[in-house]
């Protein structure tokens, strides 16, 4: 499946114009082994109200130094600080091959592959064959983390052949090719579906395998708590009764892992609350904040607000207003009119 962006008639740029465009939009310094044999274009797009950009480059090899990479682009810590971007970037490799380096990890992307990078961290992109096409989709950091329940790390790589990767790729590229207007509510639901597909593809594996004698039991305890966290009367005694072990042993299992029941249950409740607040903002439901607090297992709103502020650094109302996933303002593309002209 290919993203048919050639049909839009976007102007092709020589290397000097391309370098100026990249500097103004992303920072960094592109390098081409044969600048005189370079053409490229970038077109701003939208994927369910999230900022995206479709890009394509072609550059030749140096006859005198064939071992050099045809194209290289590096965003330094200084570039990152200047941009002030607070988002992730999902890279969809449409054609060609490239290497991406971030956080001392290198991933090799071929056609159909997807990588998830931290746009707030330095990264290096290298094209070996000099001809490639890709789509960059920018995802607001807090909305992403709150919805998935974990913080992705830069350089994560999803092969295009997996079911999750194929589903995500089709979901994203079809949304670009189909320009039919969609209601804001429907668009918000589609955006949440996009986050779910990203979670299915990039969910981290267990940091250590469940192999010791107590790990399966503790995993069961966690599962019980996740199922019952919304019940304010469900505590360690109920966990012990439901899992068939003593309260003392439950406490011991938590202590061995440097945690407590309260820490785990509040973490789960607050993560769920953050997810509901973002959903409330994106769908504009007007759901009372106190109702969200009760749905997450808190007996009163004051206690909930205090815990939430301690965890996220702001009040629940400010969080939902300031992190609306429908309003991704982290990345902007100030294109000249001739660069976004439709043929």
Structure explained in plain terms:
This protein is an alpha+beta fold and 343 residues long. The chain folds into 2 domains: 6-204, Jelly Rolls, CATH 2.60.120; 215-322, Homeodomain-like (Arc Repressor Mutant, subunit A). Helix content is 41%, strand content 21%. The protein has 12 helices and 11 strands. The protein has helices spanning 15-25, 77-83, 141-148, 163-177, 184-202, 215-228, 236-243, 247-256, 261-283, 289-295, 301-312, 316-322, and strands at residues 29-32, 38-47, 50-59, 71-75, 87-95, 98-102, 105-109, 114-118, 123-127, 131-140, 156-158. The strands form 2 sheets. The chain has a 6-stranded antiparallel β-sheet. The protein has a 5-stranded antiparallel β-sheet with strand order 1-4-9-6-7. β6 (98-102) and β7 (105-109) form a beta hairpin. The longest helix is centred in the last third of the chain and has 23 residues, at 261-283. It is elongated and about 75 Å long. 33% of the residues are buried. Residues 1-9, 206-211 and 322-343 have low confidence and may be disordered.
What's the story with the biggest beta sheet? 6 strands, antiparallel
Note poorly predicted spans.
1-9, 206-211, 322-343
| Proportion in helices | 40-55%
CATH superfamily (homologous) name of the largest domain: Jelly Rolls
Beta-strand content: 15-25%
Please, how many domains? 2
The arrangement of helices and strands along the chain is: HEEEEHEEEEEEHEHHHHHHHHH
Give the CATH architecture of the largest domain. Sandwich
End-to-end distance, in Å?
Answer: 23 Å
| Count of beta strands | 11
Total count of helical runs of at least 4 residues: 12
Rg is: 23 Å
Structure classification: alpha+beta
Question: How confident overall, as mean pLDDT?
Answer: 80
- Broad shape: elongated
Strand order across the largest sheet: 2-3-10-5-8-11
What is the highest CATH level, the class of the largest domain? Mainly Beta
| CATH fold naming of the largest domain | Jelly Rolls
